[in-house]
From TrEMBL, chain A:
GO cellular component: endoplasmic reticulum membrane
Signal peptide stretch: 1-18
The keyword Glycoprotein is assigned to this record: yes
Protein family membership: Belongs to the PIGG/PIGN/PIGO family. PIGO subfamily.
Protein name per the record: Uncharacterized protein
Alphabetical keyword list: Endoplasmic reticulum, Glycoprotein, GPI-anchor biosynthesis, Membrane, Signal, Transferase, Transmembrane, Transmembrane helix
Location(s), subcellular: Endoplasmic reticulum membrane
Pfam families: Phosphodiest
Gene Ontology terms describing biological process: GPI anchor biosynthetic process
Annotated GO MF terms: mannose-ethanolamine phosphotransferase activity
Associated pathway: Glycolipid biosynthesis; glycosylphosphatidylinositol-anchor biosynthesis
UniProt entry tagged with the keyword Membrane: yes
TrEMBL record, chain B:
Alphabetical keyword list: Endoplasmic reticulum, GPI-anchor biosynthesis, Membrane, Transmembrane, Transmembrane helix
Protein name (record): Phosphatidylinositol-glycan biosynthesis class F protein
GO terms under cellular component: endoplasmic reticulum membrane
Primary location: endoplasmic reticulum
Membrane topology type: Multi-pass membrane protein
Source organism per UniProt: Vitis vinifera
Domain of life according to the entry: Eukaryota
Gene Ontology biological-process entries: GPI anchor biosynthetic process
Isomerase as UniProt keyword: no
Membrane-spanning intervals of the chain: 41-59, 71-89, 110-135, 141-164, 176-196, 216-235
Source lineage: Eukaryota, Viridiplantae, Streptophyta, Embryophyta, Tracheophyta
Amino acid sequence: MVLHGMAIFLFTRGFLLTRTELPHFSTCSDISDSPCISPSSYSSNLNQTHLHQLQCWTRPVVDRLVIIVLDALRFDFVAPSACFEEKKPWMDKLQVLQKLASTQGSSARIFKAISDPPTTSLQRLKGLTTGGLPTFIDVGNSFGAPAIVEDNLIYQLVQNGKRVVMMGDDTWLQLFPHHFEKSYPFPSFNVKDLHTVDNGCIDHLLPSLYQEDWDVLIAHFLGVDHAGHIFGVDSTPMIEKLEQYNGVLENIIEVLESQSGPGGLHENTFLLVMGDHGQTINGDHGGGTAEEVETSIFAMSLKTTPSSLPLELNTSCCELHLDKENMCINSIQQLDFAVTVSAMLGIPFPFGSIGRVNSELYALGSGTWNLESINVGNRQTQLNMQSWMHDYVNVLCINSWQVKRYIDVYSASSIIGFSSEDIMRITDIYAQAEESWSHTIKNLLLDKNESCNTMLPIKRQIDAYSDFLASVAELARSKWTEFDLKMMGVGLGIMLITLVIQFLGIKRMNKTCGVNFPSPGDSWTSFGLIFSIFIVMIRACSFLSNSYILEEGKVASFLLATTGILKFRNSILKKKMLLEAVVFLLLVFIFRLTIELGLSKQAFSSGFTSIPLWMYIAEIVPMLALVLLACFLYKSIDDTACVGLLKFVIAVTILSYLLIAVHWTMESNLVGTPLMLQGTGKGLIPRIIYAIGIGQLLILALGRLFGKEKALDSKKGLILKVVAMLSAWSSTVIIVSGKQGPLVALASIVGGWCIMRLENLEHESRDGSVGVLNLSPLPVTQWSLLAVSLFFCTGHWCAFDGLRYGAAFIGFDDFILIRQAILLTIDTFGFSLLLPIFGLPFLVAHQYPSVQSNQRKPFIFARLSQAYMIYGLITATTVTFTIICVTIQRRHLMVWGLFAPKFVFDVVGLILSDFIIVLASLYYVG
Amino acid sequence: MKAVEIDFKTSTQAINLKKKKKHQNHVRNDAPSPVSASHAIGSHLVCALGLALSFWATHSFFSTNLISDPVHTLLLTWVFETPIVVLVYSRFRKNPKECSYWRAVGRGLLGIPLGALINIFGAIALGAPVGIQYLLGTINWSLLMSLLTFVPAACVFGSSWTDWQRVFAHTKPIGAIDYMICLPAHGAIIGAWLGAWPMPLDWERPWQEWPVCVSYGAMAGYLVAMVASLGFTLVRVARLPLKQD
């Protein structure tokens, strides 16, 4: 187990790219710490008219910003088809952008934007707004909702009095729940729905353009993404979507242009049409291939200006055949987006941003500014450009200072920081840049009026800063997006070794058993062994494909049903226990239905809650199930008249069931409870139940430690102990998992009982005289499959949005990380790990070994530990395969979407189950 | 309904009789089974050809195939295949003296819906999609499956539980006819089981739809198992003279 822990730790270090989120925020006043010229003093020399405006880190160059995000916008949707070798049907559909970009020269441009993997919308939006590289797991305190707690663009906008309006994809609202002035979110989860989000956007977008009550408008269209997911890129719906967007964009631009005259609403508005990521021809995204990473940004300033860009700074990759159209396509890192927009709007850069203010985009935005300075000062283009350069270098200076600050703070505070050599190198580069800056600034101040000489040092300065920023970005990228293969290999190796050790352990256990008791060579046992190995291997191999991971619940229930059918066949063979077999099959049937329902939960619940009858049923059925459970427990203490302590524990559980029932009736609307009672009872009852559960566990543990029970009959004693343990856990698990809890508990009891009975059948049918030795691994396999099915049944799936955060807040309103995390863990793994593992002794205890009573005790315990080891082996095998698959597929498209969550869930599950197995064997065996 | 009752009654009688006869059967276990190798070959060929023919017929005359319109294809296939299977296997009915040819045909026909029910149940337990739009496909598929697995046994054994048990639970076929029933049935089921595996893959091919690849798997398994059963029968026939020596 320790080995497991180590292996997993190593592998995780290599595989999961973690980054600590810092709670720091940039504020306006921070700028005084930087060595750069503070904008107010600097710009006052240049331009008096803007002094009255709120000035922060940089001078705002645009007043209003319209961001239109087209999800999964491939680069070749926007770029003219001439850029590519052959023209595909989906190209040249957004002609309005191309036309503008080619005719209006510098005021509208198309950029190729390079995003960083993982190219999923959520991560991309995060990256766009924070200017960082979102990794798979951002270790931070964003527990409970994916909301961004890091410093980000939107936060800065709000802090600095900008009003932000959002429409479209509701992912934005998840990320920024409270930031928007107004928002029109539309659900994004239904991939089959091509039009709801888009139509909603269109409905709200055009009217909003006429209004004055916003500064930044974000519209997020999802149609292209959805069309890609369903139909692929090369399809009619996709082309229709693009054509529709073309029309929409035409309208938008028309409206904007109509109001862009002096004094108009959009006098100084900047329009950005951008994609958050690309997609492959099949419409997938998430990985790091060129198709997915390349998206585009169309930028347009509504003030047409004749000012040309400083061509020396262009990192453009104009192709020759494009020149005749007078359009170049430059590439931009999406990393740079946040900081560039911040610079344009004149707000502090997000604290965690490591981007560079992009020269072209910034120049495009500041085109308006240049124009003004021309009007005011009536200077020459040369001078004009120079002033722009001054500004830009200043912005870059601030930018570098901010990035440096972030790197320093980050490596100081995070556990897994950068290595010291990297830091040293970065610091060196920064120091150089800094030094030359102080020179430059001196020159600048001296030669303010003799401007001809300042061009060169400024350019050098820009280069220096760019160097610094580029090296930081490179470092960050290597740190946050590249796998550490060595670590992964070592982890994997250790994992395999543990597997072998476990296997050998089981072998040895078998042998020791074999010495004590003569073993009958039974063909069925070996068949069972082979079959269970077969099943486990199939399950493990199915993790190689993303589709099987997606459908893991179904695969598990498929295999479970297969074993069920085998058992059924067997029971026909033995002409016994037909009922159990049929019940088991029925149960599997129910499982798979609920798994399917769980997968489509949202659609399901919305469809049924409207029917009142269903409501009643939904209220009453859990209660009935609770009562049934209580009856079971009552029976179990009724017919075994023994140890008082355990009996007491079980009785208390019945009491807590009653409390649960009371709690639910109070929550439901069917019974009108007085408000007073509701207020106090709401938090109280769950807390009482948790307390009872903890108390029960304590009693059990203490009883185990001190009370040497007079082992009257070890088998019965064991069963009773198991029941007590289960009951102690069950109340907590049930209340945490909500109304489905008792139903699932009931189902798992029935399932467990069936497996047990069917297993008994094996043993009874065998010649009963010889003790059964080798625990057939088949029931244990079944048991673990059942556990997996239960996991999916309870509406979980291996994704972080599959966590039921609501469960963490049952009984508590406020948020305390550890407490809520424990509750969430109980909810997630309660039915799939806690109860099955603690219930595993049932399998052993209910077999009827006809050994002499003096031999019985060690026998049972040997069997028990064997069962636990097999269970552990099964879990470890699946996890190992998951790890292998993750390693193989680490450059797979869906690695961040599917494999990584699966990996995390499995690993957490393995560690937990190892832990619980140790606990349980200590409790039962030790 | 009445026919069913009578059938059941007679079959219970038949069981009683058979229990006696079984002993005799066991006694003369090595005696050549009522089905000769050539019969077995012939019937297998007919069944396989029937399957292929019905497939081809739907393809060419009704211009549907399994992928574009699984429901119709399956329907046509099982409609074509039913008379072939029922008629062929009814010839090998147990105790032909008490049970007329047409009664065997009758119970074979009766076996179709029963077997279909069992197949549906099994399929749904294993994860077949439930829903109105899949219902027809499921029904037709299960009818075909029933034809491949259940009906031959129904024709041959009637309601003799011991025989059923022997063939399907113990998997200990004795005699060519048992092989002929047991192996193809298991082949079809295992084929269907294997055929279900490509379904969740995200290749988005039309044949990944529910019943299509499962039907393919079932038919492939059936045909393979037929060959196997033929092989077994032939081996058996070859061995029998040796044993008798």
